[in-house]
From TrEMBL:
The gene is holC. It comes from the Bacteria. This is DNA polymerase III subunit chi. It holds the Pfam family DNA_pol3_chi.
Length: 143
């Protein structure tokens, strides 16, 4: 059964959410995991793909857009087909992806902004009602 972690950031900035997604993907990749970053649409996936090149000067994350290469250890994508089931799904969309249960772990990253927080609460209830193991983590961010 998929383990679901909610990372509750003490920031109201959407950019902080994306930075944390990159950080989480980097950490998971370093531990040998495959990561799928699920975005709401193609422009968001492209933005995240660009951010992964520069989010931390000393960090490199081998990644690609889903349309280009699904064999990379970190993939940015959107839509309803993440390719082969992987280890970690980082959800950056406003709804629970239909395919989330194909992953061992699901990370939901939440910032203190109603446009993000309200749908995240709905997803939390959705997962809880279906009996998925849930963990919440309070994350202090800089700035």
């Amino acid at each position: 059964m998929t383990r679901i972690d909610f990372y509750l950031l003490n920031s109201d900035q959407p950019a902080t959410r994306l930075q944390y997604a990159c950080r989480l993907a980097h950490k998971a990749w370093q531990k040998g995991h495959h990561v799928y970053l699920h975005c709401p649409d193609e422009p968001a996936a492209e933005q995240l793909d660009e951010l992964l090149w520069s989010f931390r000067e000393e960090a490199f994350v081998p990644h690609a857009l889903q349309a280009a290469h699904t064999d990379e250890p970190v993939v940015c994508g959107f839509g309803n087909d993440p390719g082969a089931a992987q280890d970690l799904l980082i959800n950056l969309s406003d709804s629970a992806p239909e395919f989330f249960s194909r992953f061992a772990r699901l990370a939901e990253i939440v910032v203190e902004q109603d446009a993000v927080r309200v749908p995240a609460r709905e997803r939390f209830r959705f997962y809880r009602e279906r009996g998925y193991p849930l963990q919440s983590h309070q994350i202090r961010t800089a700035g």
